[in-house]
Amino acid sequence: MIKNIIFDIGGVLTRFDPNDYLSPFGFEEQKSKALNFAIFKSPAWKDYMIGKVDKNQFKEIVIHDNIHLKKEIEFILDDKNTSKLLPPLAEGVEFLKSMKGEGYKIYILSNIVGASLEYFKNNFTDVLDIIDGSL
Known about the structure:
Blueprint: E1 4-7, H1 18-22, H2 29-40, H3 43-49, H4 55-65, H5 70-76, H6 79-82, H7 90-101, E2 105-108, H8 114-123, H9 125-128, E3 133-134
Parallel strand pairs: 1-2, 2-3
Helix pairs in contact: 3-4
């Protein structure tokens, strides 16, 4: 019998799509593609996501490899902007709540880091109030 359900944050409770994330900033299409590639397709992105490098190290690596995009990378990776990477995914949040309502223990296991983690903690209190644990 299943008693526990484990949820991730990115792509389950929040939407994560770098293309959607960059679009509100108003970059031209070519620059947006270049920034998407420079940041989210960088080998350092995986290292950042697994905690091998911190955000400052990640930013330094990406800027070093893409010095011509320095200003834009600094803007995108500013804490006030990185939090926008996590708009709620209503279907995931509602499913989590319905499973909790059916008596399952709910846990979160995620590699979310830094400002995005703080954003999640501050803006998803309805989720955090009902979970049984997280890692």
